[in-house]
Amino acid sequence: MERRDLIIQTGTVLTATVLFPAFLMGCDKSEGPLVGTRRPNPADYSQPILKAISMGMNAPNPHNSQAWKFKLLSDYEALLYVDETRLLRATDPLGRQIHIGCGCFLETLRLGASKLGYGAEYELFPEGEYPLEEAGLKPVALIKVAATSTEPLPLSDSIFSRQTNRSYYEGGLITPSEFNSISALTTAKHSELSLYSEPDRLKQMLDILYEGMVVEAKTHTAYDESRIWFRSSQKKIETKRDGINLRTDGTKGLLLTIMEFIVNEENEESWHKSTAISAFLKSYHKKIDTAKGIVLFKTQTNTMADWVKTGIDYVRFQLAADQLGFVIHPMSQVLQEYPEMTALRSQFNDLLGVQEPSKIQMGVRIGRGKKLYYSYRREPDGLLI
Ligand SMILES: Cc1cc2nc3c(=O)[nH]c(=O)nc-3n(C[C@H](O)[C@H](O)[C@H](O)COP(=O)(O)O)c2cc1C
């Protein structure tokens, strides 16, 4: 039997299973502690800049593609570039989300360095913004670190507990006062954050965000990008140390074993079978419907600097949410700029009264949930140019 065909038969199990993860503070019994196993250990590096980059590597980033590379200028300075071999050309044709990921990296580095006794700062686009063809040739930022005796920065304690939570959410709807508490810790400097948690409005938003996933799943090139970045087994996850996987979705136990047998990302045809897509969409719908609110990040313009600065705001929001016991999950499909998404994206913008050049840069669901499996990262010394 084709591995994928089994999905039809197990679809009920797959979609009906409520997932209760059992990880404790970045550890899982089989894997040991987060730092040094799944994530780089700054203590493995002697140069302060590489210690700081090790901390930055923990940042959220699209598809966990970690599209970052570095040119070391000294023990204390480096240039960050987009790794152009890791662009998501189908779902992110402008490179917008990849640059949001760079902003997440820079701010995670700055906060993380403070835990190691370094002050870090970054200057964006030291050679100016560039067309996407020059990604990888022109730097996104100049990073400088220096020893400091100041205390670790606020939010830095959440770097290793933060994670994207794609599973079921619990508890009540997010109240404006809860949202204000997260926003107060975030201190977003660039994008405008808004919460949608009134039941009718939330449903309206979830419906259109879900439709975005339907469009993605039915657009071969876009959905194929998930296949390319998918790592089905623990062995592949450990070897490649990037990408997305079932475990970070909350799948575990017997269901995980079954799914690891079924899902074969190397078989393009089976990945795109309509039965497989239907089972995935059903499961996805059930999970996102447990959202307790939607948070949008909007900028007045839509430049490369807007993208990177939204990433700074986004990671700060995620760290703040984690600190206050909330979990979040970006749902980016409807915001994406490939032709098949144009009509739905316009509908979404009309619904929100957003007109160009303003742009909704990020849309995330928010709620409360348990800790799941932590994602992996590559080592920075393999990312030097
Ligand atoms: C700009 C951006 C867009 C993202 N979009 C999605 C998305 O649409 N769906 C999703 O499940 N995760 C999305 N993510 C989350 C990443 O997949 C996640 O950060 C990455 O896999 C690493 O996992 P972690 O956040 O748990 O460390 C996005 C992250 C960023 C920075």
Describe this structure in words.
This protein has two domains: 5-24 and 161-367, NADH Oxidase, CATH 3.40.109; 42-159, NADH Oxidase. Helices cover 38% and strands 13% of the residues. It has helices at residues 5-16, 48-56, 96-115, 176-186, 199-218, 220-228, 234-240, 253-262, 268-271, 274-288, 304-323, 342-352, and strands spanning 68-72, 77-82, 118-124, 141-147, 192-196, 294-299, 327-330, 359-367. Residues 1-31 have low confidence and may be disordered. The structure holds flavin mononucleotide. Residues 60-64, 97, 100-101, 104, 163-164, 166, 244, 248, 329-332, 375 line the site of flavin mononucleotide.
Summary keywords:
binds flavin mononucleotide, NADH Oxidase, 385 residues, globular, 8 strands, alpha+beta
